[in-house]
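Reading a protein record of the kind used here takes only a little practice. An example makes this concrete, so a full record is given next.
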Amino acid sequence: MQVKLYASLRQVAGTKMLDVEVNPETTIRKVLQEVTRRYPMLDKFVWKAPGELSELVHVFINGQNLRNLAGLATPLKEEDHVDIFPPVVGG
């Protein structure tokens, strides 16, 4: 499965995309844990506390906001696409 990073997350990780292996038990929680295991510097952007998603990060699965699905328990398939956006700051 492809996971895409956007904006400042790309700069922090030094990559814009990574492949994550999925199996029938894979959830978005497991994928996000794998992303932050590979790129520990992303941990502070993704997690508020261990296992608790930051309210500032935006995670989309096939274009749908994770928060409108089953949250971190949302199951994933190999053909799914995950997009991770950093907090949006503007004025």
